[in-house]
């Protein structure tokens, strides 16, 4: 399996990178089997994949040849807009081929087991594998505390609806915060309180007052690469949140959805400091595919019975095929390789943003332009400009930008913050596009 992936990936990179020119004949099956020290059937399978994806074509009695490809600049130019509003990952970095192989392998390996009902907790072999993987994020827990979910959104739905052992009723969220959680809370009319979060963090005196005086069952937070602000809590702030949670018996929902983009090995999660009061959530959708819908939740013992009961009623179990494919993808080492590729891609993009933001920070018209990692950041200007005019003028220039209004509860006071997300934007277009943004914002 690994040899097959290695061969296909290598040939793909050589073709797309220009080492093998359009129309150039590829080495023969026999030559490649000797080069890669594998069977001829493995090379034939690889050629079939490359041919299906229109990277090569065959001529009977002659061999296989590389197909001409557009150069990167023309591919980028084919996208009509620079979209700073979309949080969707760039499809060009999705590991389509690798994951397709894992799905095929999962069907071959598990066969009938994939089409029977599993357990509410998840595929046992995947649970054991993810327990080890979570240790690399400094999340240490036993397998019985893990649950595979259909993404973070399902975990939030369950936790929002179920009762907690602290017998409290209200939910506390930061403002701004994840917009789909806001929709969930408002749809189910769950009593909700808010606390303001800025580039400087939160007011810990206010947090303690809320924990002490209000009936808060959980506080939802994104300590790392906050969505939509993009900022991260310091270790001191994480420890303080953990301390207050244990002191006042408030549970913390720690949404660590971009943990895979972290470069700082010392950036431990809140779970490290208060595992008894922290529900740790990790998503695989952002790093792989949005449609994968697989996440893992670390559930403290007092919450497990209720959580599993709700989950079983919602979907019986998360997709067994997705779980089995993810297990093979992680176990084979392909996940680690892809994670590094994604890190490098997003790091390069944010470096372009930060390069521009360093200049903006010197402008008297700029209040905030934080230098972040991850994929999110924002700009706050001194002058309050018409949202409609700004969006319309930028759209005429081929740029889409948005505010953060939908990241606030309906009753909350909203700040005019211009959101910048680089997930769907090519690195080479960022600096020029932000220059256009600066002109429209009169910076």
TrEMBL record:
It comes from the Bacteria. The keyword 4Fe-4S does not apply. Pfam families: Aminotran_1_2 (PF00155), GntR (PF00392). Residues 1-69 form the HTH gntR-type domain. Keywords: Aminotransferase, DNA-binding, Pyridoxal phosphate, Transcription, Transcription regulation, Transferase. CDD domains: AAT_like, WHTH_GntR. One of its GO terms (molecular function) is DNA binding. The keyword Hydrolase does not apply. Its cofactor is pyridoxal 5'-phosphate. InterPro entries: Aminotransferase_I/II_large (IPR004839), HTH_trans_reg/aminotransferase (IPR051446), PyrdxlP-dep_Trfase (IPR015424), PyrdxlP-dep_Trfase_major (IPR015421), Tscrpt_reg_HTH_GntR (IPR000524), WH-like_DNA-bd_sf (IPR036388), WH_DNA-bd_sf (IPR036390). Transmembrane segments: none annotated. In the C-terminal section; belongs to the class-I pyridoxal-phosphate-dependent aminotransferase family. This is PLP-dependent aminotransferase family protein. It comes from Brevibacillus laterosporus (Bacillus laterosporus).
